[in-house]
Specification:
mainly alpha; 2 domains; 0% strand; sugar transport; cell membrane
Length: 251
C-alpha cells in the first residue's frame, strides 16, 4: 500500500486554522469544534474515502481545552498519530483522544502563566509606557510583539509535535514544564519591576491624587457632619471612637 504522508502545506494550513480555534468556543466542548476544524487538512490528505473522513471528524468532535497559544504540540502529535493510523498502525480512537487529554492539561498549566500571566502583561506594559508619552508605536509594539511570540510558539510547537509524535509525552515529563513556568514568571516579575520604577508619570498621578484627597478632607470634614469619620488617615486628623469628634475640636 502506498504510504500516505501529511505535507508541509497541510501543516501550514492546520497552523493557520488553529488561529481561529476560539471562534467556535462553547461551554459544552470548549475548543473541541475548533480542534476538529484544525484537523481537516490532515484528514483530507490521509483518508480518500468519505466514510473514513466522516469517522475521523467525529473522532475529534470531543471536549478539548488548553491555552490556544500552546495547542500546536497537540495538533502535531494528533496529526502524526492519524498519519500512522492511515498507514496501517493499530491506533484506535481511545488512544488518540487519550494522548490529547494527556497533553492538554500540562500545556494549559504552562500556557496560562506563560502567555496570559507573563507575555501579555510585559508587552502591554511596554506598549503602555510608550503610549503614555504620546508615541503611536506603543499599541503597535504590543500588538506585533505579543502576536509574533504567540504565533512562533504555535508554529514551532506544531512542528515539534508532528516530528516527535507520541514521544513528546516523555519529553514533557519530569519537572521540565514546571521549570519553564517558574523561569518565565521570574523573568516577567523582573521586567515589570523595571518598568514600574521607570514610570514616573504613575508616581506623580498617585501623589497628586493623594494630595487632592488630603486638601478636600481638610476643607470639608469640619463642615460636613457625615464625612467626619471618613478617611481620617488622609486628613491627618485623629478621631475619638466614642463620640466621633476630632482631637482638634476637643482642644
Amino acid at each position: 500500500m502506498e504510504q500516505r504522508k501529511i505535507t508541509r502545506s497541510d501543516l501550514v494550513s492546520m497552523f493557520l486554522r488553529s488561529n481561529l480555534q476560539q471562534a467556535s468556543f462553547n461551554f459544552e466542548r470548549i475548543h473541541g469544534l475548533g480542534f476538529c476544524y484544525d484537523m481537516i487538512p490532515a484528514i483530507k490528505r490521509l483518508y480518500p474515502l468519505k466514510e473514513d473522513q466522516v469517522a475521523a471528524l467525529r473522532r475529534h468532535l470531543v471536549f478539548f481545552n488548553t491555552t490556544p497559544a500552546v495547542c500546536g504540540p497537540v495538533i502535531g502529535v494528533t496529526a502524526a498519530m492519524e498519519e500512522a493510523r492511515a498507514n496501517g498502525a493499530e491506533i484506535d480512537d481511545g488512544t488518540i483522544n487519550g494522548i490529547k487529554v494527556g497533553l492538554m492539561g500540562p500545556l494549559a498549566g504552562v500556557g496560562d502563566p506563560l502567555v496570559w500571566g507573563t507575555l501579555r502583561p510585559i508587552t502591554a506594559a511596554l506598549g503602555a509606557s510608550l503610549a503614555l508619552s504620546g508615541n503611536i508605536l506603543g499599541p503597535l509594539l504590543f500588538f506585533f510583539i505579543f502576536n509574533a511570540v504567540r504565533l512562533a510558539m504555535k508554529w514551532y510547537g506544531l512542528q515539534l509535535g508532528f516530528r516527535k509524535g507520541v514521544n513528546i509525552v516523555s519529553d514533557m515529563g519530569g519537572n521540565l514544564l514546571q521549570k519553564l513556568t517558574e523561569g518565565a514568571s521570574i523573568l516577567g516579575l523582573f521586567v515589570m519591576g523595571v518598568l514600574v520604577t521607570k514610570m514616573d508619570i504613575v508616581k506623580r498621578a498617585v501623589s497628586g491624587f493623594t494630595n487632592a484627597c488630603r486638601r478636600w478632607c481638610h476643607r470639608h470634614y469640619d463642615r460636613t457632619e457625615h464625612s467626619r469619620p471618613a478617611l481620617p488617615w488622609i486628613a491627618g486628623a485623629r478621631f475619638d471612637a466614642a463620640d466621633g469628634t476630632s482631637a482638634q475640636q476637643k482642644n
